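Quick one: structure tokens for this chain, please?
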Amino acid sequence: MSLSDEERLRGMYYAIRNLTGVAKQWRSDHRLQRNRFEDDFTEVRDLIDKLWHAFLGGDTQGMLWFMGPDSVQTIKGEPQSPWALALTCTLEEKVKKVRGHRDWQYDGQDPFNALDHLCITSLLNHDDWKGVPASYLLKAYQHTETIMYYLRRYNDDFSDRYEKVSALISQIQGECFRVFSERDCFAKAYLIHEMMEILYGGGYPYSDPDVVTSILSSEVLHHDFTALMKLPLEDLIPHHIELVQTFEAARKRTNNKEYDDYELTRLRLFKVIEFSTKTHQYEHVRDKIVATLEGTDLAKEIPKVKKAWKRLKKAWKKNKEAENKRYDDNAGSPLDCYGFEAYSIEREAEAEKKIVPKKAKKPRKKTKKKKK
């Protein structure tokens, strides 16, 4: 399917609008306002700020003298100005909604999709705050791909006309590549997202859930999986390899009906148990999962599941105690999150105990020697 110049131009307008919107939101994010968290991607934002000029700065306005201002003229033909294009697109969207509402109404509701909350950009936000600017960077990069699609779809006069935009987008993508290759948070988010797609099963959320997907949905376990971002990349790689290799082997064994394979379903179950801290903490959650497994092919795995829980619960308690001790040792004021060092009477009292001022020596009185 070929694209007209108008369609390519329209796509670029909206992709640039979305890209500059990301940069604006990124710059005003309150989590980054006080320089509390590291954000060294300012070069990318500065390049994005130049996009509108590169895109619109080359257009001439010679027709203004002949036809008058575009914003008060009838919009005809293929609109190319920001005013005409914005209006036609807005009106087209509204007309589609009006006609669609009149002809056909969708009374249903799309099912909840946990994978939307486990996409790469969402996972980056859970990387101990370091991922906040990283998630904005990835969003920006995704919009540059859209711009490149419309701009370089054909090697023609249209692409030549926006050569400056092409060069600027290439520069932005080069900076993104540098960051992607230097920081492992992007690789962690990618691996976790791929593992989640395998864990939730084929066709999720539109197909009938199997026993593992039912457990994931009923116990709302997707919140637990964001904590995987705190693990080192080296710890995530073995899990990813195991899941992907088992998935590919299941496809070969079952002729592409991979989720009917017992070995894969069993592995998914044990990975869910290992990744979910909720199951380590709460006995009632474990009881519900056991009840779900009963009467299924995985019922024979219940003793091994309970044994795994016992081990994981013990490890979880040990980590929690260590974490609490670390928190107590480094306890700060609630005001620390605002960038202030709070006044502490206890700390000052301790400091006074350590620094005991020496008593000043009384000056000796000089005595005159008596003459013999």
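Residues 302-329 form the longest helix (28 residues).
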